Amino acid sequence: MTITVDFMSGRFFSLIFSCQTLTSLELFNTSFLFTAELPKSLQLLALKSLRLKNVRYAASDNDCVEPFSTCGSLNTLVIEDFFDPKVLCVSNSNLRSMTLRNFNLFTSHKIVLSTPNLRSLTVTHAPFHQLSACDLSFLEQVNIDFQPHCVEYGLSVISLPRELAHYVKILTLSSGTLEILNGLSPSDSIMTQIPCFLQLKSLKLKSSPNISDEEVRRIVEYLLQYTLGATKVDVINC
Length: 238
What we know:
alpha/beta, 11-stranded parallel sheet, elongated
């Protein structure tokens, strides 16, 4: 089921989130005046795929929300922008694939992952200000696709893989992400925060004409300087 709204009544909302046979839901809010608000907990036991865009989460008193823990069958989750709370906890023991798309550079969000069976994580457009994770022992692939205009968020580009470095086996960086890294000075203190990838087997870089081969080589050296074991590097010219 795909729903695109610029206004939704509370009654219609409650009907959707009380449907126990719903297996797939895409909810897009297109209004800047009204933001669809999700309940604190989604009681959708059969839901396998969920995509949410421009929604508001009903936060608790500590400005933190954990809406997905009751979706016991959830396999795929896509979150595109959200308003409130400051802390979004994604807690789900069944989740396998997750995509985070952030278009808002000015709102500070923290995302906490408690997803022990997560296999694939994609983060696109702009870095979230904070992302923390624990128990991602099954994580295989991380894709980071930031836009080059986010160069001032170089620390976020570095800190994101640092949170995941103990787990990820395949890391893919877009050309925009490479441009951000290339804009950092070798003497910049940020570059000293490169993580140690304990299990990284493959590093895939999507290069562009804006980055020379020498610059790509420098980025690879910085990314892998503390990595244990052999890592296969593939450079894809876009």
